[in-house]
Amino acid sequence: MSKSTIEIHHSKFSQGTCKLLLKFLNKDNTIPSIQCQEYNISINNQIEHGCIYTIPNSNYILSLWKDIQFHVPYLTNGHLHIPDSYNGTITKYITDVNDKDIFNLIKEKPWMLC
After folding, report:
1. Which among 10, 12, 27, 87 has most CB atoms closer than 10 A?
2. How confident is the model over 19-28, as pLDDT tens digits?
3. For the chain, what are the domain ranges?
4. How confident is residue 105, by pLDDT bands cut at 50, 70 and 90?
């Protein structure tokens, strides 16, 4: 499987935020490896720090995002890239995954709607 990435940035981030968050993420979950890359982005003439977290495959996306939100509760969205599959916001991806799960459950057990 190809590696997936979650990209986050915020005006409250500062230099070193990504590495500090990576230390917490390594302690909190069972993802075999997480790679971190820091970057700067200019939004409306304001510089923000950002992080790109790379994980071995898409199976760990929900776990990683949940841990990121636990440690950075003011962060409401991020950019997700899954090679040959998805490139967009993580909140839309999670909504789509949950909708598919519900649809599949209804297909398997339609009596649950009664």
Report:
1. 10
2. 999 999 988 6
3. 4-113
4. very low
Tell me the one-letter amino acid at 77.
N
Residues in the chain: 114
- Give the H or E element holding residue 43: strand 35-43
Distances (CA, A) of 26 to 2, 20, 57, 69, 108: 20, 10, 16, 14, 37
CATH architecture observed for domain 4-113? 2-Layer Sandwich (3.30)
Does pTM top 0.85 for this prediction?
no
Interior angle at CA 48, CA 78 and CA 46, nearest 5: 125
Residue 45, helix vs strand vs coil: coil
Q: Distances from the Cα of 91 to the Cαs of 36, 65, 95, 110, in angstroms? A: 21, 10, 6, 27
Predicted local distance difference test score (pLDDT) of residue 114: 45
